[in-house]
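Colleagues,

Please find the record for the two-part complex below.
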Amino acid sequence: MIITLDLDSDVPLYQQLRDRVVEGIAAGQLEVGSPLPASRALANDFGINFHTVVKGYDLLRREGLVRLTRKSGAVVQRDRSSGVPSSEALAVWAGRMRSVVAEGLAQGMTPEFLLSRCREIARSFGQPEGEEDQV
Amino acid sequence: MVGAVLVLLLPLVMMVAAAYVLPSVVAPDVPFGVRIPPQKEASPEAMRARSTYRATVLWAGGAVTLLAVAAALASGISLVLIAAVGVVLAVWLLAYARAHMALKAAKRDQGWYAGLHQAVTAETSLRTSPPVFPWLWAVPSIAVVALNLVVGIVRYPSLPSRLAIHYSLGGRANGFAAKSYLSAFTPVLIEAVLTALLVVAAAAWLRSTASLDPARAEESLEHHRLWTSRMTRGLLVVSACMNLTLLLTSFKVWEIGGALTAIPAASGLPVLVGAAALIVVALRTQQAGASQAAGARRDGELVPRDDDRNWIGGLFYWNPADKALLVPRRFGVGMTLNVGNAWSWVILAGGIGLAVFAASVRHQP
């Protein structure tokens, strides 16, 4: 999977790394069992500090999306077919979702508009097999 | 004397041709060792740097070549060839340096990276399932060394007690060594060492960090795969050619091979042909990639990171943070040592020591 980090962005590099991996899983490019390179190797390829990659991997680990391997790499352990997330993960996600929804409402969007945009965005990550379109 | 003229002419012409062609062989966004944004690849400054370099290389290099040939034909001294090679290299270096500094100045004075977001791009599968080393392509190279060794073992007992190890332009022997395992098998030893080095270099090339363009990541990844695949295989072929050249040299020293080794230029041909073929393959691969890139739409404002600070003069790679020992050259075809890595100095010292040792062995009265 191709990962690009914008060096001149306001978003920290470890956060960008975490975000790209999450998007990769959402888009089906990464699945349960997909390996991620050893942090030193990936840091070397990016030409960034090794600790930045470690921090990014750690974020993913705490979210339960990857588990770290002995070889200092990581393996994806949740994807779209993994079923309902843990109540913790759901709570964290709901908390962030609350801010995003509030932003939309504050800007004047109606709930219906908000929902339809959310649906579009969810669809943009593609449709894995066996998942039904729930209206 | 035709053979002598060829011996002089061919390497010099090849060097000038290689120097001329090189700007089209290197990645277009790193001209003359200077990293530039892809948007500036066709800028007037880049075009001018290239045309000036090429004109210098062609005219000065051509003049030196002609002078060297004339001087050698007149005097019959092979030293002229070595001097000419040195002068052509100096011309090459100066032409490169001028282009390098002109581009660096343009980049700085015109603020080429202002307003652009620099980014780094990596493909994870290059590390989680790296490409397999093409051992089959190393077989010819290793086979030649084995063949050379076997022939040498068979021939050794019947060798004369004094070996002619150096020949003049006219084909007469003018350097000798007493027969010993070391003096007789020097070519084989050199082949073995060179083969090992080139296999290591090829492996390093295959595993080198991909320089991907964030605005057209998929295509640049595809290009990287094709480029490293072809170049590593090409390097192994060049290794086989080098070994063939050394094999023919050894046959001459061992006084076997007859007509094949009688022509002074014959032994040099395999390595020259191999090197020429590698450059042609490199050129065509790079041109195919460039024409594909020129037509592609650039996605957003992301550009590859300006990593000039890791390169001294665009020629020497200095990066203690990079764990790689060998990295692809910026201006050239092949690998270069990471001088920021301490082991590089150990290797350099070892290499110099080996060369001195080999030279001392050969020049015994």
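The radius of gyration of chain B is 23 Å.

Comments are welcome before we finalize the supplementary table.
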